[in-house]
Amino acid sequence: MTDAAPIHSRPFVFDTEFDDSGAVVRASTFRPVKRTYMPAEVEALVAQGRLEAREAALAEVASIEAMGLAAIGEALASAMPALTLVAQTHREQSVDLAMAAARVIATAALERLPSGPLQAALEALGQEIDASPRLVVRAPGLDDGLRAKLQAVCTDAGFSGLVSFREEPSMPLAAFQLEWTDGRADFDPAAAADRIDLVLASALAAEAGHAESVAPAPISAGSDF
Question: Mean of the pLDDT values across residues 75-104?
Fold first, then answer.
């Protein structure tokens, strides 16, 4: 039996074509395998191999980095709703805690100085009430000493008209109502705290991405301190 010829050995194969004049029409595609190399060629091949290996390693590292970044991005994207909820809950709880502390402080301050908001309102409204001939003050606890003090505040604010005091025992502590010729103002600590709660809730809802507003419509008539 005859052994098959190696793949690189092609005996009796002549694929070079010549014309009648002997010129080569189609050259042979056969190229013998180079079996010996010079030292310089070996060094060049080794350097080329190292370069290709380095480039392949760098490409693999870049691919791993890209996959890692993609995994991190997916993890962050999946965690964002939970993180947003945690942050929103923290803000809401912080607001609730701040409002609870503010209520305690405000209650203690109003118990110590219940006429403070009324005096502050009279001082702030000095320019609005100075042209009015009469000012009506409705509030609880209007004893003679407080009336004299409020009268002095009105005078210092520039009001020269008549101040009429109306005792209102049913009103909450530190609440009041002021009425003059072309306006009025009133204050209720509990109602003011409730409005602050609604404004804060509206701000938190807007920050969370909700377009609706939970704050009530503003009161068109009068003023509220």
Answer: 88
pLDDT tens digits along 4-15: 555 555 555 566
**Domain membership of residue 130 as a residue range:** 110-224
Tens of pLDDT, residues 180-216: 988 999 999 999 989 998 998 888 888 776 544 444 4
**193 with 163: CB under 8 angstroms?**
no
Q: In this structure, is residue 87 part of a structural domain?
A: no
223: which 2 tokens? 């003023």
Chain centre to alpha carbon of residue 193: 26
Give the residue carrying structure tokens 């380095």.
54
**pLDDT higher than 50, residue 221:** no
* Whether the Cβ atoms of residue 163 and residue 104 lie closer than 8 Å to each other: no
Q: Are residues 54 and 132 in the same domain?
A: no
What stretches of 20-143 show up as alpha helix (H) in DSSP?
39-112, 116-124, 126-129
CB within 8 Å of 5: residues ≥ 6 apart: 11
- Per-residue CA distances from 10 to 15, 16, 27, 32, 97 (Å): 11, 13, 16, 10, 92
Q: Is the pTM of this model over 0.85?
A: no
Token readout for 28 is 């042979």
- Kindly give, in sequence order, each residue whose CB lies less than 8 Å from that of residue 114, ignoring residues fewer than 6 positions away: 140, 141, 173, 174
